[in-house]
Amino acid sequence: MTPIPVTTKSISHAVELLKIGRLVAFPTETVYGLGADASNPDAVAKIFAAKGRPIDHPVIVHLARAAQIYDWAESVPDTALILAEAFWPGPLTIILNKNAQVSLAVTGGQNTVALRIPANPVALQLLEAFGNGIAAPSANRFGHISPTQAGHVAEELGDSVDCILDGGPCSVGVESTIIDLTDTHPTLLRPGRITRSQLKNVLHTEIRLSSQNKIRAPGLLAVHYAPHTMALLCPAETLIAMVDEMCSKGKNIGILAFSDVIAALPCPHLIQLPECAEHYETALYSALRELDNLQLDTILIEQPPDHEAWAAVNDRLNKATV
Ligand code: TXA
Ligand code: MG
């Protein structure tokens, strides 16, 4: 499927497709989503088939307006309203108890539902025009790297998607932060651009980490967001020696680096990413995908700092590497 430019006409076309239970890939500020009418279980089932994803994995329901929370959640705690007010539209997904109308196809059989209003003009136009929730996981094959450009979606899903809206590259580049509010203690299920400290500052309470929580989320699987090529994380101090050793063995390697020292390495497949955590985050998946397409033996990734600003990047890199 060739991505199509965003126009009033292509948005209407996408809405018509969603209404008849077909799949539409669309840009969000985080990554591209593979969308279906969240109220139509047959349409949602097509998402799982296209991705090759196990059916017990829940998907996020995307909304146009915060008032729509009440169409999906059974009880809405004040904490949800406070977070929605502070961070929506934006890269934050909120898990709440679902109401009786929400199909188990969307929630992977669980009694909770994941909700988010994305901060991307194309996504918002589509959601507003459709008027209902759009269920959408990232538009990649299960377990692979999420797409941050329309071309990546075409590469991943081919003709198993009925329309790809091309909204250009995603500005955030990693999946949304996920917070679970179904317990009295808010729990962070997946780190993202919105940090744990930001959530804490707005809620004035400690945010637990997901190891203390039992809800299943495939983003929490050890191997996820991964390239096909073997990838290794390596501290800057040992990276140079590692490159020498691998090159002397005739290995064809790729390097993902951010510090200047490494950038001086004589490697034909070296991608230098920004030193700023947010800019690195935006560029990461596209760079990984580029190296993954080169049929290399190994991708060596310079280990980023262990600092909160890098939490989302470190989480995804730990899952992408062996
Ligand atoms: O930024 C994003 O979140 C992107 C864009 C498209 O919005 N979507 C995304 O979807 O990353 P996906 O399906 O690749 O990851 C969604 C995560 C999964 O880890 C899923 O398990 C979790 O959200 N999730 C969805 N519903 C849930 C629920 N009811 N309880 C716990 N986790 C849930
Ligand atoms: Mg995904």
Task: Report a brief summary of the structure.
By secondary structure, the chain is an alpha/beta fold. The protein has helices at 8-19, 41-51, 69-72, 78-87, 104-107, 121-130, 150-157, 196-203, 236-248, 260-263, 277-292, 311-320; strands spanning 4-5, 24-26, 33-37, 60-62, 92-97, 112-116, 134-135, 163-166, 177-180, 187-190, 208-209, 230-234, 253-257, 270-272, 298-302.
The main sheet comes to: 11 strands, mixed
Bound molecules: threonylcarbamoyladenylate, magnesium ion
Low-confidence runs of at least 5 consecutive residues: none
What structural class results from the helix and strand content? alpha/beta
Number of domains: 2
Q: What is the global morphology?
A: globular
Beta-strand percentage range: 15-25%
Spatial order of the strands forming the largest sheet: 1-8-2-3-7-4-6-5-9-10-11
Number of helices: 12
Percent helix, as a range, is 25-40%
Q: Which architecture of the largest domain would the CATH scheme give at its second level?
A: Alpha-Beta Complex
N-to-C series of helices and strands:
EHEEHEHHEHEHEHEEEHEEHEHEHEH
Backbone CA Rg: 20 Å
Classify the oligomer.
single chain
Mean model confidence by pLDDT: 94
Q: Which features does this protein show?
A:
322 residues; alpha/beta; DHBP synthase; Rossmann fold; 11-stranded mixed beta sheet; 4-stranded parallel beta sheet; 34% helix; 18% strand; globular; binds threonylcarbamoyladenylate; binds magnesium ion
